[in-house]
UniProtKB/TrEMBL annotation:
Its cofactor is FAD. GO terms for molecular function: FAD binding; oxidoreductase activity. Residues 275-302 form a coiled coil. It comes from Candidatus Marsarchaeota G2 archaeon ECH_B_SAG-M15. The keyword Oxidoreductase applies. The lineage of its organism: Archaea, Candidatus Marsarchaeota, Candidatus Marsarchaeota group 2. This is FAD-binding PCMH-type domain-containing protein.
């Protein structure tokens, strides 16, 4: 009996056209032996059991929007949990929603908004990103500056472990001190510890106060990061604080016909009671305030699709995801420009500047690949040296595995790396799940 027949007999759908599973968003190749779709927890158990029987690795797949080689799989099983898209229960008293792993974040927020609530984490891929994928990636997004990342919103998880057993981690409670925090251990684990099949998520009511969305265009790049620092000195807490440099703005003008100017811009959502004080902080910028809901959406889409616009500028690109202490933002922007000059490469930069997380996108042609890699490496090393992190939300995968070890060794000490490896062994001693990534 063929492998395909064995999976089919267990009720799993074997995918015949695997084209969409062949790479992640940064074009890391995915070369599985077989791709199957799971419609239930029981089918995930069956997939893991059969993969283990044949000694095949298994990689979970949600929306396929991962970056950095997290999904890379050669000769193993890819199990697509996107058919698991039930919103099981919404509790408007406890403010908890219970969902399956395949629910797309935008679909979840459409459901919640009709009931006066929302789920804050909003990665740029929220139109395709699934709850399960966002959990294991530890995803963030534009609203992180105020609301934090997935780590702050996941209360409990149902997980299928590599041996096929099912466990529930955590409780759907706002307070819970019982035992080790295995939920947070699972968040950001990149599919190396278990397959998330259900999640209990904290949600909150939509804001009742009025929010003003604005674009602030600057004519001196040095003033942009300083504006963020000054907003913080004034204790102004934006709900969005996003950055787009001149090259991102030019790409948006070309591909989305967005009226832009200057050498960079901030996209800000501000509470009405903070607006006048914020305007004084932004006195060196030309401010354009959204007047309608449609214009608000236009501003938001511009930042959300900035990466798409920039990607169209080059056949090849490397997307960075570095985080620094907010006080070091001017230094980070300056270093990006120095490295552009040093390597003769462009790095259009955007990102969540309000929480110190920027995404330079290094552009290169086939002959410049090695040069781009050195640019990437040097920027990460610089970030580590000033107390930052090589990843805020995109993950580690294959791309940053060695850099992760370097950061952990320098900031936390070598024993921490060994401790993480031992945790991996407890969950998955056979290294069945998403092997070769992260801390291995």
């Amino acid at each position: 009996m063929s492998l395909e027949e064995e999976f089919s007999r267990l009720g799993l759908e074997v995918v015949s056209n695997t084209e969409k599973y062949r790479e992640d968003f940064t074009h890391y190749p995915v070369e599985p032996r077989i791709v199957v779709k799971a419609k239930s927890t029981e089918e995930v158990v069956s997939a893991l059991t059969l993969a283990r029987k044949h000694k095949l690795s298994l990689t979970p797949w949600g929306g396929g929007s991962s970056l950095g080689g997290v999904l890379w799989n050669k000769g193993g099983v890819v199990v697509d949990v996107s058919p698991m898209k039930r919103i099981i229960e919404f509790d408007d008293v406890n403010w908890v929603v219970h969902v399956e792993a395949g629910v797309v974040l935008d679909d979840l927020n459409r459901f919640l908004s009709q009931r006066g609530f929302f789920f804050p984490p909003d990665p740029a891929s929220s139109f395709v990103c699934t709850v399960g994928g966002a959990v294991v990636q530890g995803s963030g997004g534009m609203r992180c500056v105020k609301y934090g990342t997935m780590r702050d919103w996941v209360l409990a998880l149902k997980v299928v472990l590599p041996d096929g057993s099912i466990v529930k981690l955590g409780e759907p409670l706002l307070k819970n001190r019982a035992g080790y925090d295995l939920v947070r251990l699972m968040v950001g684990s990149e599919g190396t510890l278990g397959v998330v099949v259900e999640a209990w998520l904290k949600v909150i009511p939509l804001p009742r106060y009025k929010l003003t969305r604005l674009l602030a265009f600057f004519h001196d790049e040095a003033h942009i990061a300083e504006a963020i620092l000054e907003l913080r000195r004034h204790r102004i807490q934006p709900e969005l604080a996003e950055y787009m440099d001149q090259r991102v703005l030019e790409a948006l003008r070309t591909h989305f016909n967005l009226p832009v100017e200057g050498v960079g811009a901030l996209l800000l959502d501000l509470a009405e009671f903070d607006l006048e004080e914020a305007k004084s902080v932004l006195s060196k910028a030309k401010i354009r305030i959204a007047q309608t809901e449609e214009e608000k959406e236009e501003f938001y889409r511009a930042r959300a699709f900035g990466g798409v616009a920039v990607s169209a500028l080059s056949k090849n690109y490397m997307v960075e995801d570095v985080v620094v202490p907010i006080s070091r933002l001017p230094d980070l922007v300056s270093m990006i420009r120095k490295l552009e000059e040093k390597y003769g490469l462009l790095a259009p930069t955007q990102g969540h500047i309000g929480d110190g997380n920027l995404h330079p996108e290094i552009l290169f042609d086939d002959s410049q690949r090695e040069k781009a890699q050195r640019f990437y490496q040097e920027l990460c090393e610089y970030v580590i040296s000033i107390g930052g992190s090589i990843t805020g939300e995109h993950g580690v995968g294959l791309q940053k595995k060695e850099l992760l070890k370097r950061q952990l060794k320098e900031h936390n000490g070598a024993p921490v790396i060994e401790l993480m490896k031992k945790i991996r062994e407890v969950f998955d001693p056979e290294h069945l799940l998403n092997p070769g990534k992260y801390i291995e």
